[in-house]
Specification:
Number of strands: 7
Protein name: Arginine/ornithine transport system ATPase
Bound molecules: guanosine-5'-triphosphate, magnesium ion
Pfam families: MeaB
Family: Belongs to the SIMIBI class G3E GTPase family. ArgK/MeaB subfamily.
Organism: uncultured Bacteroidota bacterium
CATH architecture of the largest domain: 3-Layer(aba) Sandwich
Structural class: alpha/beta
Helix content: 40-55%
Largest sheet: 7 strands, parallel
Radius of gyration: 22 Å
Number of domains: 3
Strand content: 5-15%
InterPro entries: GTPase_ArgK, P-loop_NTPase
Distance between the termini: 37 Å
């Protein structure tokens, strides 16, 4: 593995500086971690070789980590739940990093800025690190750098990394591709949500949390029952893990200890092979996606005018997409 890592890749003039930065990240320096994340979140094409060099230095497996995704509708109580759970976990001696990745959907009124303010207790905890969204306003379902950001936080010694994302369409599956454990947060009275979720996100959820139980305990109990019976009709993602459903309140703290116990059960030593199997699949999909992006970029660069002309023809319906794709690739082969 070691020899596969890139040494002094082309396009990197400050390799030594990056090595120093990586070392500071590994020592757990917060400012270095923030700086590394900023570089990794850059969308400038010219930063790519430096991003890859830094990541290759950081991506050396450390002790086992827990990657937890929290998804759910806007306002479901995800951030508040993360704060309550995060404080519990951090005071149990774990180091917790929180990555907010929701795209600041207009409906949630730009809660990202508020997240760090809202999670003040967690933000001030010595064992916690909170990083707001990197793709504010871009509108992506899940920010495309989330995997890089997770690896970087782990390199800095955070053994629990929590990713928050608004569960909307593609983000549901995208989060399942980036973390080990998916927690779905849902409101007690979200009847329609529950119907929709049964088909969509629930396929990917390992734990379902009915939030804000303090507001209406009877409704929360009913929701738990409803989801449990709905879930019974669906497949579990892993044969040895049955999806758990519980009610919590971040205000009163009820259910938070139980939720953490479920997480620990999920990450028990005996389940590590299953988690590693998920990560293997995720790495392969990440590889596929990366290859896809690199090839498209290469094709655009090598056959730019041709590419645009054919793309226009595809849009007009003048040429079928698979025929067009083959034409572009064939064009590369002809000198
Ligand atoms: N009573 C009560 N209110 C809660 C609880 N959890 C969250 N809230 C409130 O619900 C509102 C939304 O909570 P957030 O944690 O911001 O929800 P979110 O899912 O992160 O929202 P977005 O990031 O905007 O999608 C806030 O006003 C919280 O104070 C809870 O357990 N009980
Ligand atoms: Mg939030």
């Amino acid at each position: 593995m070691q020899q596969l890592r890139t040494n002094q890749p082309p396009g990197v003039t400050d390799y030594e500086d990056l090595a120093v930065l990586a070392e500071r990240v590994r020592r757990g320096e917060r400012r270095a971690l923030a700086k590394a994340l900023s570089l990794l979140e850059s969308t400038r094409l010219s930063d790519k070789p430096r991003q890859h060099a830094l990541l290759s230095m950081l991506a050396i497996p450390s002790a086992p980590t827990m990657r937890i995704g929290i998804t759910g509708a806007a306002g479901a109580g995800k951030s508040t739940l993360i704060e309550a759970l995060g404080l519990h976990v951090a005071s149990n001696g774990h180091r917790v990093a929180v990555l907010a990745t929701d795209p600041a959907a207009p409906s949630s009124g730009g809660s990202i800025l508020g997240d760090k303010l809202r999670m003040t207790a967690l933000a001030n905890h010595p064992n916690a690190f909170i990083r707001p969204s990197s793709n504010r306003g871009r509108g992506d379902a899940l920010d495309s750098h989330v995997r890089e950001r997770i690896i970087t936080c782990e390199a800095a010694g955070y053994d629990v990394v929590v990713v928050e994302t608004v569960g909307a369409g593609q983000a549901d599956t995208a989060i399942a591709d980036a973390v080990d454990l998916v927690i779905l947060a849902t409101l007690p009275n979200a009847g329609d949500d529950i119907q929709a979720l049964k088909r969509g996100v629930m396929e990917y959820a390992d734990i379902v949390v009915v939030t804000k139980a303090d507001l209406d305990r009877a409704a929360a109990r009913r929701a738990v029952q409803q989801i449990r019976s709905g879930r019974a009709l669906l497949r579990n993602r892993d044969v040895d893990w049955h999806v758990r459903v519980l009610a919590t309140s971040s205000t009163t703290g009820e259910g938070i200890t139980e939720l953490w116990m479920l997480c620990q059960e999920f990450f028990a030593d005996g389940r590590r092979p299953n988690i590693e199997a998920r990560r293997r699949q995720q790495r392969m999909r990440w590889f596929d996606e990366s290859l896809h992006c690199e090839l498209i970029a290469l094709l655009r660069q090598r056959a730019s005018t041709h590419f645009d002309r054919i793309a226009d023809a595809v849009a007009e319906g003048a040429i079928l997409p698979p025929v067009a794709a083959a034409t572009i690739v064939n064009h590369l082969e002809t000198p």
